[in-house]
Design goal:
heterodimer; A: alpha+beta; Butyryl-Coa Dehydrogenase, subunit A, domain 1; Butyryl-CoA Dehydrogenase, subunit A, domain 2; Butyryl-CoA Dehydrogenase, subunit A, domain 3; four-stranded mixed beta sheet; four-stranded antiparallel beta sheet; 11 helices; 8 strands; B: Butyryl-CoA Dehydrogenase, subunit A, domain 3; 2 domains; three-stranded antiparallel beta sheet; two-stranded antiparallel sheet
Chain lengths: 387, 313
């Protein structure tokens, strides 16, 4: 246990800090969930790419810097310290990218990773279906082999970024006779392929962060399949592991929220209840605990370990932490909490953050499912209901 | 930057865990408890000698005094195992709190005797209204295996931090053990035609305990490393660990008794030993409120640098 940065790591931090201070937009971007904001965020992805910061852990051959996970954490800390915008391509760089790195052919890595790192192709996820939410093995959208193509028919929903993104990924039933986890295949597809209809869904806040996707005999080349026909469930579980376990929500995000919460508390200290004070301290303590745990997970992976079912513990923790921090802020704000903009014209980011935090315990596998996974796979309690 | 234990640390921890699991099971706790009913102290020289033979009393004693010269991170790992086994002998106080405190004072005259297991150190401190395993009039603890005597001591800040740190390590070990006991019970107790552990109402409560423990542990290890490295903010991290470990242990204790149902409320089920030790250590060496206040003073007054760039400040 060596909890000090090396001089090289400190120098790297200084490099990231200087670049971020020079490049992060001074004014917050318009929300990623509308066309105007999406375009601003894509522009930011390309600015990041101009500094070669798209995805620092990837090999240089695929648009990265070949850095390790500790450097990635340092990058993320500095990114959030500087107030860096949400990543328009998070479905790509944090979920699909690591999956392609693990399961993709050399050809697929070359074809997909570099444009992803450079922000040239923005990715949407397409997991859920109307009948397959928490129960993802109930997927029924079909991809039937026809020569060197799959013909996809069916429907996906809650597809993050799909309203505006370029490409999507998801799992489809390639064996129409198969049931549950078998006969599924992980397929990447151009969202502009003929036969795909996107219907944006208005979210709680009124904007369109996700969409429904309708597939009507959509022809996708066989080479867009990842890791072979029938391997979809295993690949998707690996993607979900990256999502829940390490990459999707790096600790800097929550540490900066905790710091803002401390500052908000100081402003409202005179009228705040003692319970708010404790909630603020809890926020700082939990964000720190999450950071320590992430450093431990990163060190484990760097030593050749893997993320298993403990990724579920992680997902439960950060999503519930995010919600409680924003709830505390809303309580501190009192009558200002409902305002979309404050008197000085600035966007009420606590309100936006609170609304977004309510999705955390639902997306990436609901926390009820995560608690089942924890109980069954980590504690060994009997499984029920699942086939 | 490497938030991992060394192979040596993991090997040592595993060997202590195996040793205690093999020699210090619930039947030993019940035997010690029965001794108190005969008016004897719940202590057993054979158990103590076993710990001495394992080298545990010598763990932090420098090599020139016959010890192993290991550090507080090693000790915290072993203290967690002592919690897991609900060990009652004063190993943690003597060897993991007392020894580093003596070393910090530059006092070396007792070290060889401690390493050899000949001396047990009572550690009176102003924060505790009692002294564990001391001399003097007995005070009764809810934990039947704790030996408390009247008498407090001076307000030594380093001793407080060491005592608090090692109580947090024991608390996460206790929490692990209580979660394991409740989980095992949920697998075997059948109602409505199935093990109660198949019900999500049970699963989700136990999963929540697993979350609390998972995220308390790294705080404890970080605090141990901070104390070992002697960084200026170490007391804040000890206090953070005390809050996190207390919360995890209390939540797990309450969940574990609930999962056991009426059985959990009996003296017959072993859970109560772990639960009572948790209550005791939650209050010892500074309560949750005391330590939360120290975190408060650092975080809200601005003496500690906070934010994403300050993870290890």
């Amino acid at each position: 246990m060596h909890l000090h940065y090396t001089p090289e790591q400190e120098a790297f931090r200084a490099e990231v800090r200087a670049w971020m201070e020079a490049h992060v937009p001074k004014e917050p971007l318009v929300t990623l969930e509308c066309k105007e904001g999406f375009d601003q965020h894509v522009e930011w992805e390309r600015t990041l790419a101009s500094g070669n910061w798209g995805m620092v852990t990837w090999p240089e051959a695929y648009g990265g810097r070949g850095l390790d996970l500790i450097q990635w954490l340092i990058f993320e800390e500095e990114y959030f310290r500087a107030g860096g915008p949400n990543r328009a391509n998070q479905n790509g760089i944090f979920l699909l990218g690591p999956t392609i790195m693990e399961f993709g052919t050399e050809e697929q890595k070359k074809r997909f990773l570099t444009p992803m790192a450079k922000g040239e192709v923005i990715w949407a996820q397409a997991w859920s279906e109307p009948g397959a939410g928490s129960d993802m093995a109930a997927i029924s959208s079909k991809a039937i082999r026809d020569g060197d193509h799959y013909v996809i028919t069916g429907q996906k929903t809650w597809s993050s970024r799909a309203a505006f993104a370029d490409w999507g990924f998801g799992i489809f039933r390639t064996d129409p006779e198969s049931k549950r986890h078998k006969g599924l295949t992980f397929i990447l597809f151009d969202l502009n392929t003929p036969g795909i209809t996107r219907r944006p869904i208005r979210q709680l806040h009124g904007d369109t962060g996700f969409a429904e996707l309708f597939f009507d005999e959509v022809r996708v080349p066989v080479e867009n399949c990842l890791a072979g026909e029938g391997e979809g469930w295993n690949v998707a579980m690996a993607t979900a592991g990256f999502e829940r376990g390490l990459m999707l929500r790096s600790p800097g995000r929550f540490q900066v929220t905790a710091k803002r919460l401390v500052e908000l508390y100081r402003k409202h200290e005179a009228e705040a209840a003692p319970s708010a004070r404790e909630a603020v301290l809890q926020a700082w303590m939990a964000a720190q605990a999450y950071a320590y745990n992430t450093y431990a997970v990163a060190a484990k992976i760097m030593a050749g370990g893997k993320i298993g079912a403990e990724a579920s513990l992680n997902k439960i923790f950060w999503s519930e932490l995010d919600r409680s921090m924003h709830r505390t802020a809303m309580q501190l704000l009192g009558a200002h909490a409902e305002l979309k903009r404050f008197d000085n014209g600035s966007v009420n980011q606590w309100l936006e953050g609170y609304i977004f935090s309510l999705s955390g315990p639902i997306y990436a596998g609901s926390n009820e499912v995560q608690r089942n996974i924890t109980a069954e796979r980590l504690l060994g309690l009997p499984r029920v209901g699942a086939g | 930057m490497d938030f991992r234990f060394t192979e040596d640390q993991l090997t040592l921890t595993e060997s202590v865990r195996d040793y205690l699991a093999g020699t210090h099971g619930p039947e030993v706790l019940r035997r010690l408890d029965a001794a108190t009913e005969q008016g004897n102290a719940p202590r057993d020289p054979a158990i103590w000698q076993g710990l001495v033979d394992m080298g545990l009393t010598a763990l932090l004693v420098p090599e020139e005094h016959g010890g192993l010269g290991l550090g507080l991170v090693d000790a915290a790992l072993i203290a967690a195992e002592c919690g897991r086994a609900c060990l009652a002998e004063p190993l943690v106080d003597t060897a993991f709190v007392g020894v580093p405190w003596l070393l910090a004072q530059g006092k070396s005259d007792q070290l060889a005797a401690i390493a050899a297991g000949e001396v047990k150190l009572p550690l009176p401190h102003a924060i505790n209204p009692w002294t564990a395993d001391g001399e003097g009039a007995a005070v009764q603890s809810v934990d039947p295996l704790r030996v408390l005597t009247q008498g407090s001591g001076p307000d030594d800040p380093h001793l407080l931090n060491l005592g608090a740190l090692m109580s947090t390590a024991q608390l996460v070990g206790l929490a692990d053990a209580m979660l394991a006991q409740a989980t095992e019970y949920a697998k075997i107790r059948t109602q409505f035609g199935q093990p109660i552990g198949a019900f999500q109402a049970i699963k989700h409560q136990l999963a929540s305990c697993a979350v609390a423990i998972e995220f308390a542990k790294p705080v404890v290890w970080r605090a141990a490393a901070a104390m070992q490295d002697g960084i200026a903010s170490a007391p804040i991290h000890v206090s953070h660990a005390k809050v996190a470990a207390t919360d995890a242990a209390m939540q797990t204790a309450e969940t574990a008794i609930q999962v056991h149902g009426a059985m959990g409320y009996t003296y017959e089920v072993d859970l109560h030993f772990w639960m009572k030790r948790s209550w005791a250590l939650a209050g010892a060496w500074g309560s949750r409120a005391f330590h939360l206040k120290r975190v408060d003073e650092a975080v809200l007054s601005g003496t500690l640098e906070i934010g994403p760039q300050s993870t290890f400040a």
